[in-house]
Specification:
Number of helices of chain B: 15
Helix content of chain A: 55-70%
Oligomer: heterodimer
Number of strands of chain B: 11
Low-confidence stretches of chain A: none
Strand order of the largest sheet of chain A: 1-2
Distance between the termini of chain A: 21 Å
Shape of chain A: globular
Low-confidence stretches of chain B: 1-29
Helix content of chain B: 25-40%
Mean pLDDT of chain A: 94
Radius of gyration of chain A: 23 Å
Shape of chain B: globular
Order of helices and strands of chain B: HEHHEEHEHHEEHHHHEHHHEEEEHH
Strand content of chain B: 5-15%
Mean pLDDT of chain B: 89
Structural class of chain B: alpha/beta
Strand content of chain A: under 5%
């Protein structure tokens, strides 16, 4: 079979999550850009994960009754549900026919990164992607921002659930105060970016505007607590948000919508998208084009992606981005055509490549540049992983490794890689070489 | 309120060395002085680690997080040590631990990520101004030496030298003689990024196999796991103790971002202190007396935390914190601080411990002492535009 065209290769590997054998035909005959665009209109539905059996309520009961055994059992149950969700998440990424759309889901989930720092936070993450991220990936950025900022996973992760405005009813009574963690990261990591021109006063202001955004300890769902909400006028980025007649959630939402439409937000989102799809240090012209598309469309993400696909810089035939560990795990499984994420493969890969979703060490999420992703130790891990991955993934149905390599990489394959795959003593070793090759580790 | 002046910084009192007697010519004879940099990521609360019980504003400012002298360990009568850092007290008493308080990098905003970049890139305050780190630039002056980061990926501070490797415990054993590795060496030979990394990785792995215990080889986890740090210290010290081992090393410990329920004498932060102190206290015995005398360990974090407790029993992002300096032959047993005070009118921007010492001064002093890098080079090349951050003569 012929190698894919340079454009088809970029579509499958840089924009998508790695070529699957079934995609070869469509990509060889059709227009790669149209192939990607069609994914945005009709993404393959993903299995929906949601928290089952109200463990959050039972966790609170167990705490109240000081029942250690019950708490332990509930924590185990939460862990199991979480692992189940991770398995479905990877299986979908490995098998989906719309992997460009799926990459965008992963991109945004990393932009709005949350981590498992307590049992209740872990429980709340189970439905995070399905509720806060996926529905908005081709919609308006501001809708995703609000869905995220009101999702229990984010409220718990960045400590907003107990943040109380000192001037509120609860603040006066309990002498409690703000926790500015979520507000700061909304400004710095989710919207304006660290150079977006906000001050410490703005951090405090936004923290006040989202006071009362909390969770219901029974159901684990979002709950607005009017008694904790600020009753004062609040000024954020020189705009006044007047004291509400009755404390309400709309005031904070209005502030988030204003942040979402801010030019600094457009600039920051454009930079992150360009860094993800074009280069670690993307050309300014590309960033500006994406920024303009964002501003023109009022943050309509689909129009931003369309602009991205129209940029010649994004179609550089040579692989320019080092794959992250998750991308390695997903793309290797896709190439061999497996129909789910084998449990042992996932466990092993996530442990050794240190990239388990929802375990990033900071709210900035996992890094997206080669210099941050790599070190001598990490490279050796990738080689070790490649050998094991080949052993766990290469079944009889997997395409012959030499033609898989040729179709996927075409003339960008180095002659040494071709030679090494041809000389491999068996199919499994050939796949191991392919997975560890410099070509496969980039996209 | 009277501030206690432990020492006066640069411009005021001329305590800073203005001349730089070079102990060793650069790149000259092999040197066995060593330097370990420990990065605490997430902003460690310096007022919790080394509480100033002598400051009359302390107890009121810290409310439920304040310690009293029934729990805190006395250092010099003014400053105390958090009880969970007890393993460090004997080092302080032996003058092998110095503490620098109210210290901060030149970064003055409150983003973890930019602050860590500045801590590592050694710039005058910009996260963007470098894609390599001050330790990498220093290491590049000694191409015959080796640097090692105990971390899967190479941290920014070590970027910039060709002789910096990273190593981290892993579950799978590495067979350095396998055919597969030989094939990959061949495939990587024309990849300028992968080729040197693979060579360094194989060298580090060979040392690990020859010298580390099986437990430490595999004790993985991630750097934020409180209990992992001592094991990482064991690995680090063992690497350094090998003949031809790294002279410069970096260790990381994460998870210091205590926004909620950080606890006072016990709790989340106390557990992290225990692990940190247990780990740091291992260095003298692991390196042995002779090597410990030639080693300096510097512990620093990207910024401190608010003086006041927030609404959730924790502290938010602040400015100044503490730095620890450990070594077998240092001017230890002292807390160096141009103490700014904790009164509400003494705080930086009304909320943080005010920075009075530049962290770069600490780093430069140690690089000067341990690596013999002259002041001119430190001021301009290793830490660009840093001449005003002078050397701390009291530490020399």
């Amino acid at each position: 079979m012929a190698a894919l065209s340079a454009h088809a290769r970029v579509a499958a590997n840089r924009f998508g999550m790695g070529l699957r054998p079934e995609e070869i035909e469509g990509l060889s005959s059709g227009n790669p850009r149209a192939w990607l665009l069609s994914q945005l209109s009709s993404p393959q539905p993903a299995p929906v994960s949601s928290l089952e059996g109200s463990p959050i309520r039972r966790l609170a009961e167990g705490e109240k009754n000081k029942d250690k055994d019950a708490q332990k059992a509930i924590r185990r149950e939460i862990r199991q549900q979480f692992t189940g969700m991770l398995g479905r998440k990877f299986t979908h990424a490995i098998t989906t026919k719309t992997s460009f759309h799926e990459r965008l889901v992963w991109f945004w989930e990393n932009h709005f990164s949350v981590s498992t720092k307590s049992p209740i936070a872990t429980a709340s993450i189970i439905g995070y992607e399905a509720l806060a991220i996926r529905p908005h990936v081709t919609g308006k950025f501001e809708d995703m921002l609000i869905a995220v900022a009101q999702h229990p996973a984010m409220l718990l992760y960045l400590d907003n659930t107990r943040s109380i405005s000192a001037d509120s009813m609860a603040g006066k009574r309990q002498k409690k105060g703000l926790n500015e963690n979520l507000a700061r990261e909304i400004l710095e990591l989710h919207t304006l970016g660290v150079e977006g021109g906000y001050s410490q006063a703005d951090v405090g202001a936004l923290a006040k505007l989202i006071t009362g955004w909390s969770i219901d300890r029974e159901s684990g769902n979002f709950q607005f607590r009017p008694l904790a909400h600020s009753r004062e006028d609040v000024t954020l980025l020189n705009k006044r948000y007047s004291a509400p007649r009755m404390p309400n959630v709309e005031r904070g939402e209005a502030a988030l919508r204003d942040l979402a439409r801010h030019p600094a937000t457009a600039q920051f989102i454009a930079l992150k998208l360009a860094r993800h799809f074009i280069a670690d240090i993307p050309p300014e012209s590309a960033v500006n084009a994406l920024r303009d598309a964002f501003l023109r469309s009022g943050g309509d993400l689909r129009q931003v992606y369309e602009a991205l696909l129209g940029l010649p810089e994004a179609w550089q035939p040579a692989p320019v981005k080092l794959k992250s560990s998750s991308e390695m795990i997903i793309s290797a499984a896709r190439l061999t055509g497996v129909d789910d994420a084998p449990r042992r493969y996932l466990e092993f890969s996530l442990r050794e490549l240190k990239n388990t979703p929802y375990s990033a060490l900071s709210p900035a999420g996992f890094p997206d540049t080669a210099s941050e992703l790599l070190g001598s130790d990490m490279l050796l891990r990738r080689i070790q992983w490649a050998e094991e991955a080949a052993r766990m993934l290469t079944k009889e149905e997997a395409p012959p490794p030499d033609s898989a390599a040729y179709i996927t990489f075409g003339e960008t394959l180095h002659p040494d890689t071709v030679q090494a795959i041809a000389n491999a003593r068996d199919r499994q070793t050939a796949y191991a070489i392919l997975f560890a090759s410099p070509e496969f580790q980039r996209r | 309120m009277l501030n206690r002046r432990h020492f006066i910084t640069a411009c005021c009192a001329g305590l800073i060395a203005t001349t730089s007697p070079l102990r060793f010519a650069l790149g000259n004879t092999p040197d066995d002085r060593r330097f370990v940099f420990v990065i605490l990521r997430g902003a460690m609360d310096g007022l919790a680690a080394v509480p100033p019980l002598g400051d009359r504003a302390y107890a009121a400012a810290r409310r439920e997080l304040a310690l009293d002298d029934s729990k805190a360990l006395p250092l010099d009568g003014y400053f105390y040590l958090h009880p969970a850092l007890q393993p460090l007290l004997p080092l302080y008493q032996k003058k092998q631990l110095a503490i620098i308080h109210a210290v901060a990098s030149p970064y003055r905003s409150r983003s973890h990520f930019d602050a860590q970049d500045v801590l590592e890139n050694g710039s005058a305050g910009s996260a963007k101004s470098a894609d390599n780190g001050w330790l990498g630039r220093a290491l590049a002056l000694f191409p015959q030496d080796k640097g090692l980061a105990i971390s899967p990926a190479l941290p920014l501070v070590m970027h910039g030298a060709g002789n910096a490797a990273s190593w981290f415990p892993k579950k799978l054993a590495v067979d350095g003689k396998s055919d597969f590795l030989a094939t990959m060496q061949q495939l990587y030979s024309h990849d300028t990024v992968f080729q040197p990394y693979l060579q360094q990785a194989l060298a580090a792995e060979a040392t690990a196999v020859a010298s580390l215990s099986p437990e430490d080889m595999k004790s993985g986890g991630n750097a934020a796991d409180s209990n992992v740090f001592p094991s990482l210290v064991r690995s680090c010290a063992t690497f350094m103790a090998q003949p031809g081992g790294p002279r410069i090393a970096v260790l990381e410990s994460g998870g210091w971002d205590t926004h909620a329920r950080q606890g006072a004498a016990d709790g989340t932060l106390a557990r992290k202190f225990t692990s940190l102190a247990d780990g740091l206290a291992l260095f003298p015995s692991l390196l042995g007396e002779a090597a410990w005398k030639k080693t300096v360990v510097v512990v620093a974090t990207e910024f401190g935390r608010t003086v006041n407790v927030n609404g959730t029993g924790g502290t938010d992002h602040g400015t100044a914190s503490v730095s620890f300096l450990l070594g077998g032959d240092i001017a230890g047993g002292q807390v160096l601080a141009d103490w700014p005070g904790l009164g509400s009118n003494q705080l930086f921007e009304g909320r943080d411990l005010a920075p009075t010492t530049d962290l770069r001064s600490v780093f430069k002093t140690v690089l000067h002492r341990q690596l013999g890098i002259d002041k001119q080079r430190l001021d301009n090349a290793i830490f660009p535009e840093s001449a005003q951050a002078g050397l701390l003569t009291k530490l020399l």
